[in-house]
Design goal:
The chain is mostly helical. The chain contains 3 helices and 2 strands, in the order H-H-H-E-E.
Length: 98
């Protein structure tokens, strides 16, 4: 299996516009090799008679039926609000804007 060398890592970092030190390039080239080895070992196990799965346990979504119910009026929704303003929820200013 081809390995990912320093030049490949440096090129990928350059394409992604990520600045890496020489130590980071060395470390990442080793990590990419470990990742490629792990993918290769999984690929050896995966055969045509083994279906691809995203989760080891079958999962199903349980959805409830949508039912139309009564909703709150604006007044009811704002009744417990600490600082309603002009028919809306008043919240503290966070950006220092007027």
């Amino acid at each position: 299996m081809p390995s990912i060398g320093r030049d490949d890592v440096a090129r990928l970092a350059d394409l992604a516009r990520i600045q890496l030190t020489d130590e980071e390039v060395d470390r990442l080239s080793g990590e990419f090799d470990a990742i490629m080895d792990a993918v290769a070992s999984v690929s050896e196990v995966a055969t045509a008679d083994v279906p691809a799965t995203s989760h080891p346990i079958p999962m199903t979504n349980v959805f409830r039926e949508d039912t139309v119910t009564d909703t709150l009026t604006q007044e009811q929704a704002l009744a417990a609000a600490p600082h309603p303003e002009d028919g809306r929820f008043g919240v503290p200013q966070i950006l220092g804007e007027e």
